[in-house]
Design goal:
- By secondary structure, the chain is α/β, with parallel strands linked by helices.
- Helices cover 44% and strands 14% of the residues.
- The chain is built from 13 helices and 8 strands.
- It has an 8-stranded parallel barrel with strand order 1-2-3-4-5-6-7-8, surrounded by 6 helices.
- α2 packs parallel to α3 and α4 runs parallel beside α5 (106-116).
- The longest helix has 16 residues, at 245-260.
- The radius of gyration is 20 Å and the shape is globular.
- The protein starts with 8 loop residues before the first helix and ends in a 13-residue tail after the last helix.
- Bound molecules: 3-hydroxypyruvic acid and magnesium ion.
- Residues 155, 157, 180-183, 222 line the site of 3-hydroxypyruvic acid.
Length: 273
């Protein structure tokens, strides 16, 4: 008999339970619901590299809500500009948290946290249109619980972030980091790779994980498949992503096609010509 496990990500982290986080790059509410039904511990809707805009995010959050899977949104910000307005909007739509790419400085980390917390902890604006009933309850109205429930993640994926790692990770209110191994590899002068083999990148990844976890932060990393996720969990990561839905779909199509075409004999005509 399986033991019920908490769906709240902070609670899972507190209990030392792994978080397997699906990645949604396709703009589909139904697709998001199907991924949730597959049983991921959490999902992330990708507005940075996914084919997803805010108008797609809302039905996707509705799709995952049906199942009750905590859902984060990776916002499309880059470099020194953080999409504060997009973060606040997806949180109002019912996201459980955000992942901001390229958290390259303490100032960016502060902006991420500010967008996720109502005053006095941050600068989030009041008006949680959907989140108030999708994530609130009669016992605990959303605005009351949001400052402790919303998750603020930033991605560590550059040499600049490595240079300022301690100051970035010391940002009060930050819940976790996500490593982007592809961008990190590029930034360190190596070819982009989800499973880097260059020793410099391997060492950087381990340094980031240990530095984050020594502060109690959730340490997450994007991976290329389920086996790589298992390896990262064994290494000690708290949160892993077995690539995105596009890869899963392409793989499924290829398997079916290859199976269907595995018989090479010509089809004989029943009419004999
Ligand atoms: C990276 O590998 O750089 C990522 O951002 C993964 O999504
Ligand atoms: Mg990246």
């Amino acid at each position: 008999m399986s033991i019920p496990q908490p769906t709240d990500l902070r609670e899972r982290h507190r209990l030392g339970l792994p978080i397997v986080n699906g990645w949604l790059s396709m703009p589909s509410g139904f697709g998001a619901e199907l991924a949730a039904r597959a049983g991921y511990d959490s999902l992330t809707i990708d507005m940075q590299h996914g084919m997803v805009d805010f108008c797609d995010v809302l039905p996707m959050l509705q799709g995952t809500s049906i199942v009750g899977t905590p859902t984060l949104v990776r916002v499309p910000s880059a470099f020194d500009h953080v999409c504060v307005e997009v973060m606040m909007k997806v949180l109002d739509a019912g996201a459980h948290g955000v992942i901001a790419p390229q958290m390259d400085s303490p100032a960016i980390a502060r902006q991420i946290v500010d967008a996720c917390r109502y005053p006095p902890l941050g600068q989030r604006s009041s008006g949680a249109t959907r989140a108030s009933f999708a994530l609130g309850s009669t016992q605990t109205p959303y605005a009351k619980s949001a400052n402790t429930s919303v998750l603020a993640f930033g991605m560590i994926e550059s040499q600049a972030a490595l240079d300022d790692l301690d100051a970035i990770l010391d940002t009060p209110g930050l819940d976790g980091i996500y490593i982007g191994p592809n961008d990190l590899s590029l930034s360190l002068g190596e070819p982009a790779a989800s499973e880097p083999t260059s020793q410099r990148v391997v060492d950087a990844i381990e340094r980031i994980r240990l530095s984050a976890q020594s502060r109690g932060l959730i340490a997450g990393i994007f991976c290329s498949n389920g086996e790589a996720c298992a390896m990262r969990l064994k290494q000690g990561f708290n949160m892993v992503t077995p690539a995105h839905d596009v890869a899963a779909l392409m793989q499924g199509h290829s398997q079916r096609l290859n199976a269907a075409r595995s018989v090479s004999a010509p089809i004989s005509s029943s009419k004999g010509y």
